[in-house]
Amino acid sequence: MQHSSAPTFPTLAPKPGILPFAIAISVLNILGHTWLGFEQAWATPFVSLAAAYSSELTVELAINGWQRARFRGGIRRLVVFLLPAHITGLAVGMLLYTNERFMVVAFASSLAIFSKVLFRVPTGAVSGPPTTHFLNPSNIGITATLLLFHDWVGVAQPYQFTENVSGALDWILPAIILCSGSFLNWRATKRIPLILAWLVGFALQAVIRSLVTEESAIAYLAPMTGLAFVLFTFYMVTDPMTSPRSPRRQIVFGAGTAAVYGLLTYGGVVFGLFFSLTIVCAVRGLLIWHRARNPATISKELGAAGRKSVTQVAT
Fold first, then answer.
1. Are 253 and 244 in contact (CB under 8 A)?
2. Minimal CB count within 10 Å: which of 5, 13, 134, 237?
3. Residue 207 falls within a domain, yes or no?
4. 95, part of any domain
5. Alpha-carbon distance 265 to 287, whole Å?
6. pLDDT digits (tens, 9 = 90+) for 118-142
7. Looking at the domain assignment, is residue 266 inside a domain?
8. How many folded domains does the chain comprise?
9. Domain boundaries, position 281
């Protein structure tokens, strides 16, 4: 007599830092809509999450099919699988302002998820996935939406993060986010060199612009005092999946993003934070593609790094 065994599923664990990040952005959205002063409609985060969840599930089913879908095997696996989409959906809903044009929010979140499939580069890996995405999902979703629907949408105003906060809380709230972000990027993502390079580079471009335009450097440094800038610094530019691993390349990535921001802003381009990160991520993707496609580089890297993938060495 044969006994049918229950299907087994491979281990699915959240990537380092993703769970505390998901909790933090969830708490921020709840506090934002109930207390801090978020100006988006209450339905915005729910529409954005629904679009992100459904897009993530659609992509998984299209690639792996039902039998091999990674979210199968219980509610815990489903939750872990949807954590990246959860972060993306809340980030897009929090940072875009579309009034009540919910379809635009859904478009941004869906594009953010689909970008991980549409924009990929070969890794040259001996083992592991043959390709990887290189564009920050939330950022590219926001960037594309701002470009395509610039007459309809904008970004959330920085004051909404502390609109209803006064007194000592004006300092306490940013301090909490700064400390938690520093701890997360120190212990989990290992992106402290990137953060320092981005901050120093941002200050430097502000000083250079002030010398060129003969305006006060204080005005160009002012964005650094806002909570929106703190969130971008600790929770957007440091995305571990789309930023370099090695400290040296992290410094180049952070400083490069600041330099591109300075050039865009000097040229009168608005929304420079999002556009600069998109440009730098795209350039990094081209470099990874070139490194992985160059046979001489692959041989050299594999000889030096053994069984490591070219991407691990190059990024």
1. yes
2. 5
3. yes
4. yes
5. 25
6. 999 987 655 566 788 999 999 999 9
7. yes
8. 1
9. 18-300+309-314
